[in-house]
């Protein structure tokens, strides 16, 4: 059986040397809670890690697609899409991706004198299902912010900032209810805002008008009328535009093939995806990728 620790296509990984960490630990902000390593593995086929003697850090694994498994204290658990687990330090465990449907995961290693405060009471996977109050996109944006600043860890102020952000990021998992209830203290979002947030969190799925309406407990016609009153267009058309916006990001910043991007956005037919992209964006996806690559090479801001 093939077993791979790292080296997946389109992965993102950043770590910090022990020597630099030792220097940073002298600062109270760092030694309380800090990151050792952070990354994102998309479709990590053959991913496998075994810590037979445990390790000196805790590990968060957040699955956003596919599935995997982990074994701890003699019990095996399945980790599925929209679930997470935090594996403790000093405890032996093993984990890996499903062979048929390998997971895509955000993950990080963390340590510190206060790290134990973010550990769950058990080992079972915890759900993070999308909903109109789930704030999943907020969490992923925070991950990107932490990743960017941690990648600049040779400058201490960036390391300090990533440590401060880590409190909120881990808190969004271990204190899920307060994290999701933040909207109640900021004022209730509008109907369309809640719908759009749900669309963002399901951009990889094929959602019909009936499914959208059922999620918010309205009839399709009433749901559509309410959305049009706020946005000025149909919900399905808006959803497709969001998909094309995501497609632009993937074309520009990933090495995924066009048919892979098509599948990741819920299009079973790549030709239909290309036609839809051309209609909304104005050019075919292959030309869009070429133009964006040329702009980056020439340092031209569009």
UniProtKB/TrEMBL annotation:
It comes from Paraprevotella xylaniphila YIT 11841. InterPro entries: AraC-bd, Homeodomain-like_sf, HTH-like, HTH_AraC, HTH_AraC-typ_CS, Tscrpt_reg_AraC-type_HTH. The keyword Repressor does not apply. This is Transcriptional regulator, AraC family. It comes from the Bacteria. SMART domains: HTH_ARAC. One of its GO terms (molecular function) is DNA-binding transcription factor activity. Pfam families: AraC_binding, HTH_18. CDD domains: cupin_MmsR-like_N (cd06986).
């Amino acid at each position: 059986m093939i077993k791979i620790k790292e080296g997946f296509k389109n992965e993102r990984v950043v770590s910090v040397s022990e020597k630099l960490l030792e220097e940073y630990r002298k600062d109270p902000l760092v030694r309380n809670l800090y990151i050792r390593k952070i990354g994102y593995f998309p479709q990590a086929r053959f991913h496998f890690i075994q810590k037979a003697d445990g390790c000196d850090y805790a590990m968060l694994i957040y699955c956003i697609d596919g599935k995997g498994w982990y074994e701890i204290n003699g019990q095996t658990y399945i980790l599925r899409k929209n679930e997470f687990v935090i594996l403790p330090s000093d405890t032996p465990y093993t984990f890996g991706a499903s062979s048929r449907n390998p997971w895509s995961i955000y993950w990080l290693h963390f340590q510190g004198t206060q790290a134990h405060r973010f550990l769950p009471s058990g080992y079972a996977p915890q759900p993070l299902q999308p909903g109109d109050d789930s704030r999943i996109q907020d969490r992923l944006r925070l991950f990107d912010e932490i990743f960017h600043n941690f990648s600049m860890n040779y400058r201490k102020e960036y390391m300090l900032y990533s440590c401060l952000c880590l409190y909120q990021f881990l808190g969004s998992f271990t204190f899920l209810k307060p994290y999701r209830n933040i909207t109640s203290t900021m004022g209730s979002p509008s109907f369309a805002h809640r719908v759009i947030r749900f669309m963002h969190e399901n951009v990889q799925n094929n959602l019909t008008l009936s499914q959208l309406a059922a999620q918010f407990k309205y009839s399709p016609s009433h749901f559509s009328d309410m959305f049009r009153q706020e946005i000025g267009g149909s919900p399905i058309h808006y959803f497709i535009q969001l998909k094309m916006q995501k497609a632009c990001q993937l074309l520009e910043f990933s090495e995924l093939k066009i048919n892979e991007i098509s599948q990741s956005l819920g299009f079973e037919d790549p030709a239909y995806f290309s036609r839809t992209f051309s209609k909304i964006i104005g050019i075919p996806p292959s030309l869009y990728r070429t133009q964006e690559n040329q702009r980056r090479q020439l340092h031209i801001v569009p």
